[in-house]
Amino acid sequence: MFASKEQFKEAFTEKLQTLFGQSLDESSIADKYVALSTLIREIISKRWYRSNQQYSLSKEKQVYYFSMEFLLGRLLGSNLFNLGITEVCRQGLKDLGIELDEVEAVEHDAGLGNGGLGRLAACFLDSMASLQLPGHGTGIRYRHGMFEQKIVDGYQIELPDNWLRDGYVWETRKADRAVTVKFGGTVRLEQQAGRLVAIHENYESVLAVPYDVPVVGANCHTVNTLRLWSAETNHFDFSSFSKGDFLKAVEQKYSLEATSQILYPDDNYPEGKTLRLKQQYFFVSAGLQSIVRRYKRTHGSKPADLARIHKKIAIHINDTHPALAVPELMRILMDEEGLSWDQAWEATRKTISYTNHTILPEALEKWPVEMVKTLLPRMYMIIEELNERFCAALWEKYSGDWERIRAMALVSDGYVHMAHLAVVGSHSVNGVAEVHSNILKNEVLANFNRFYPLRFNNKTNGVTHRRWLAKANPKLAELITEAIGEGWLAQPHELAKLHRYAHDPAFQNRIKFVKQCNKKRLASYIQDKIGLAVDTNSIFDVQAKRIHAYKRQILNALHILDLYNRLKADPGLAIEPRTFIFSGKAATGYYLAKRIIKFINTLAQVINHDPDIDGRIKVVFLENYSVSLAELIIPAADVSEQISTASKEASGTGNMKLMMNGAVTIGTLDGANIEIKDEVGDDNIIIFGLTAEQVLNYYKYGGYNVLDAYHGNSRIKLVVDQLINGFLPVSQDEFDSIHHSLMRTNDEYFVLKDFAGYAAAQAKLNKLYCDQRAWQAMAINNIAFSGRFASDRTVSEYAIGIWKIKPVVIREN
Ligand code: 26W
């Protein structure tokens, strides 16, 4: 690559000239970004080509990770890091008077996802490539990604995310690999030469054009592919055009191309829109067609070859959004490749595996039968047949038990149940943390676990420590390497070697110094963004994630209000100064979540400017939470708020990123918090609240009355009343919906039930922070025991346990 920074400088300036015909002095920062990225892309392209060549030659099994969302963030920095050339580029640019960080900041985040699920997919791509695993992504190239959030007068405003405005250097359009996807029309079955053939007529077809993005492995020559599909059409209504009806001439074109125009900004809350179902089939069909085409080239195209497809291909579906992969693979194998039903079924089941990411009942996808039938008639036929065969098998085992059979059917009550389709059509079903997998097995999918006892398993989530530690927190990374060597970069469990420094005062001081630098960096961002000065000696307490009732930002906010009340009543109250930092988006149609944002901003307005408080607590809401903003916030956090109602957060991954950066968790026994506690030990985490078992028992048997919590604690009563009694400077009904969610629906998420425990946990945290030696030891131990939560561990568990794939070492030439 670059033997020296001199060589880099030469290549870079030459690239500027050949691309823009400009000298360094004449070029803008955006030009510099394009020049640097293009230069890096060329290096990557060579490796990419060789990877593809060697994958084909090796004939090893490949895995394809199908996901509606890939929340990549920026790629320049992570590509430089994985290529191992960050420093040579940084120093070279510096000589030329350019700051690498400023160049990186030009890149628009690829925000092709909502939150946890989409970011997990991006972490997995990074880990697959870095472990030299032949694993690729399949998704949608949304013209508009996750909306941009503005806060105006305390309210969330959504603006379209035009991330492709300046082009996207990392993608390559592969027009010659386009495939056709068919919607609507009618299907009839016809006997032809002794075979039943499906004939699809009067459909509308969309051209799916792939855009490939390289996925660069760290410290190896692997470059995998993320293939994102874009909907296009050659269709042009010439007859309308020639009659002068130009609008009509383009109307159908736009309507077909709408398929990949927008990402639905719903997280854990389905909208049930036809366009979303269309998106799901669109990328699943395109992805499978292209995989089968490649398989035939490499492994043969006779029906007998295709019947063995599971030996060379694994398809993983990220939640149920791509569950149409089950009937679509059946269709391709039967209708296009001539396999029998039984052959196609065996191959399909052995190829596909499924991860569940949520058990919120309202988030389990189901599509109205009529919608599926109309939009995807062939899919519906196959689903119906699958359903009949599955119900017959259930009848064999549970004859007469109609209730159970109805509860497990793929099609019932007028809906297609996507989780059932995914479970039945796959060979592996996993949850994303121990407690979540157990709830799947024993509650939500218990019937299925009894019927298919070997199918269920757990794969606890992880995050890529390359982006979330090494790249986001370079000062910390440097300090770690100085202490324990650089082995942790390839083997994150080696971070455990830091444990012996936990009580070393000199090391503690250096850890504290790094945190302080990161806090200063965030403080100056806050100053720039909202004009608020925050005290970098205060505790930086972070809750950054989607806004959702079950994540209980409201618990955090009510506790802040309580703290404020107590400070007003007793100015001598001994507390450490604290800056409460919130960030996160609400789904556009989620009214309660939007009011929670307004509530937090109202608290900020009241508290930050109250002279009685004198800056001892401050509240900050940072707009437009995104991967890049997370990279700024997380390294600066002292405290990680992970306070969901136990049983509701499948895993959480922000909890892992924050611990990796030395934040101490205050949290419930939910999702991966439990495993974080197991790793760091009770002394290095602050736990409170109901357990998942207790919560589930309340749901099943009752026994919780919110009025007991409300009347039983005067502090709780006060903050709940303050929502609606005119105490806050907003119209009196502004927070009715929040009040209602607590008091009128018996506090579905146990906010008031857990309040006292949370307040006590906060008091404990405050006390721990006062002893800086003890606190720094906790911070160090959190970093030390975060190795288990690196996605390299997670992905290798998938590779061995589910996909049955092994590394393919890509040679340099
Ligand atoms: C159809 C509406 C919809 C959209 C997105 C329903 C469900 C989803 C996702 C499955 C929600 C999601 O992102 N779940 C999160 O997945 C993370 C990765 O496994 C977990 O860490 C989070 O706990 C879980 O909420």
From TrEMBL:
Its cofactor is pyridoxal 5'-phosphate. The keyword Glycosyltransferase applies. Belongs to the glycogen phosphorylase family. Keywords: Carbohydrate metabolism, Glycosyltransferase, Pyridoxal phosphate, Transferase. It catalyses: [(1->4)-alpha-D-glucosyl](n) + phosphate = [(1->4)-alpha-D-glucosyl](n-1) + alpha-D-glucose 1-phosphate. The lineage of its organism: Bacteria, Bacillati, Bacillota, Negativicutes, Selenomonadales. SUPFAM superfamilies: UDP-Glycosyltransferase/glycogen phosphorylase. Pfam families: Phosphorylase. This is Alpha-1,4 glucan phosphorylase. GO terms for molecular function: 1,4-alpha-oligoglucan phosphorylase activity. Phosphorylase is an important allosteric enzyme in carbohydrate metabolism. Enzymes from different sources differ in their regulatory mechanisms and in their natural substrates. However, all known phosphorylases share catalytic and structural properties. Allosteric enzyme that catalyzes the rate-limiting step in glycogen catabolism, the phosphorolytic cleavage of glycogen to produce glucose-1-phosphate, and plays a central role in maintaining cellular and organismal glucose homeostasis. CDD domains: GT35_Glycogen_Phosphorylase. The gene is glgP_1. Its EC number is 2.4.1.1. It comes from the Bacteria.
